[in-house]
Amino acid sequence: MSPLHLCLAFSSLLFAVGLTGALARGNSILVLLGLELMLNAANLNFIAFWRFGPHGSPATGVVFVLFAIAVAAAETAVGLALIISMYRHQRNIRLPEATRLKG
Amino acid sequence: MNLPAAQLWIIPALPLLAAGLGALTPRPARRFAAAAAIAGMAGALIFSILALRSAAADPSAHSFSNFAWFDLGHGAVTLGWLLDPLSALMCAMVSLVGLLIFIFSLGYMDADENFTRFFCFLSLFASAMLGVVIANSLLLLFVGWEVMGLASYLLIGFWFHNPVAAAAAKKAFITTRIGDLGFLLGLVWLYNATGSTLLYDGGRGVLEAGPLGGLAMPALAGGMAASTGIGLLLFCGAAGKSGQFPLHVWLPDAMEGPTPVSALIHAATMVAAGVFLIARVFPLVSADLTQAAAPIHALTVVAAIGVITALLGASIAVAQRDLKRVLAFSTISQLGYMMLALGVGSWVAAVFHLLTHAFFKALLFLSAGSVIHASHHEQDIRRLGGLRGRMRTTFATFAVGMMALAGVPFLFSGFWSKEAILHAALEWNVSTLPLYAGLAGVILTAFYMTRLLCEVFCGAPRSEAAAHAHESPAVITIPLVILAVGSIGLGFLGTPAWPWLQSQLTGETVAARSILEGGGLTVLSIVLVAIGIGSGWALYGRRPRATESAPDPVEAAAPGLFTFLGARMKIDEAYAATLGRLNSLGAALADFLDRRLWGGLVSLLGRIGEGAGLMNTGADEAGINAAFDAVSGGLRRTGQAYSRAQTGSGQGYLRALAVAFVVLAFLVLMGGGR
Lengths: 103, 674
Known about the structure:
Strand order of the largest sheet of chain B: 1-2
Oligomer: heterodimer
Radius of gyration of chain A: 17 Å
Strand content of chain A: under 5%
Distance between the termini of chain A: 51 Å
Shape of chain A: elongated
CATH topology of chain A: Helix Hairpins
CATH architecture of chain A: Orthogonal Bundle
Number of strands of chain B: 2
């Protein structure tokens, strides 16, 4: 197995763990945690393909990942704000109970 | 100073203006309303005298002034004023008698709260009559005629809070309306036949030779001339207004109005209008006399109706117990005389009698009004009596009126005009009936007037009111005296020895005759008057009625006849039993048809409409609506089905996303990267 395949296998595992967490947990914060894991699995793929693939520009993968991490941080801030306002509405942060937008 | 025909409109306009002012006058301004009415009438009198001077200057001329009222199609409706001795004399008579009646009303209506309204209506009445008199167009004449009908309705029903008066007003209006329908039809026929309603129009007027010749041609079935039909229709109107049998029934009931109104109706206006109309259109009514072969002449009918009315009125008057009703029936009888005179072809005698009758009948009514005023509205002659000493002026004037009406010879005007009529009847070669009827009427007239005079003024008072009566104030007695002078003096204008009036009216010099010419008839009628007065005096004057309940001498002699006459020959009852019942029958039939036949048809149509509506609704609901419902139901169900997927659970969506991604990735991989 080449290092690239190892990296991809690891990031797939990480993605599956994140997805499972996002789908299976009821707590919104843990769901958000799961989403972060999936995002980081994707970031890992970027780094792996940049490190072991044919070389383009010197720092493409790293720049991309840095952007993704910054966006993810902003996204997490929005997510946490949503969780707070969700708490204000229904006095808990359980995601399966947040079905008010259903038509 | 003269009044040309073009300015003739001033005469009716002045009272009309007074009526307008009276209508706007508030109720407390009594003096103003009365002053306006009397000033209007006095002005009309002054202008009438000027008009009379103009007319007397050339009696044979019919000077007229026509003007277009409004344009209609190719022509114009033309009206106009007519100035000839007939209209000028009538104007002078109407305005003089009207003025005296107005002045009398000042005293008579003094206590009435609707004083201003009364003078407004009186002015309107007089104005309408003056309008009739000066009209040169039958259409304008008809307008005045109808306004007069309205004014008579308002005045007869002046005390409308009394249901009898209200009913009498309605009766007068409806009865005369029946006649007016005939007038209107005649007018339309005349317009259709000649294209004009003008009386004189420089050769084209309906009373002038050209159109008259056409009208007199035999045009109808049986060789009747169109002028016969038109004349008879116009006579219908005249019969209604002038109280001729069978339309006389309104006239006695009109006594429910205030006494000045009775005087105005019976003397100057209203009933005079009918006789005036026939006298005015006499050339038209008599045009068919040129057709000797015609089955009937209009004038023959006029004479026959006159005969019936003269005798009917005179005999009913014998048995009436109401002071004013006796006078009312005497008016009917005298109008019969006038129609008789017209019928036998002497319209001059009819107009002469119309003028003298206006004076003495106004005098009699106003004297009766004075009696009624003095005795607190007691009109039953059985409850009056003994007023001779207490009301000397009224007695004297009433006696003058009575003698004029009875035809006491030589001094009184009624004698001369009645003689003129009787002589005209003598010369009529169709039938002698009018002459005999006229002579019989002379006895009856003298008899019932003597009865009336004796009952009211002789003997002892038979009621409290009569016992305490005293002479009326000067405002009432002065008009009486003036009318009494007129009742005497007017006769001398038309005596055979000096036939000024006849010359004026015919427009050619009538040769003076000695009074003794045709003296046999004169002597006979004087004898008949003497018999009438003598028998009246013998029955009522020699031993006056002692108590209110004492039987009338005639009643004692022939109770059945007296009751029959007292009930006015039961003509009203006969009308109620025949025409009234026919009318109710017709109404019932119409009601039945309305309810059953037409009502059924209408509701059938309604049902059909309803059924169509129901079918329409069914089709809508079952067909079109159901289809739309089905489509929208399907849409709704689809929507419901889809909405079930929207759980609102974020993780559910994510799960679906993950599954879909896996499936998509699988498909992409299996497809070999295509």
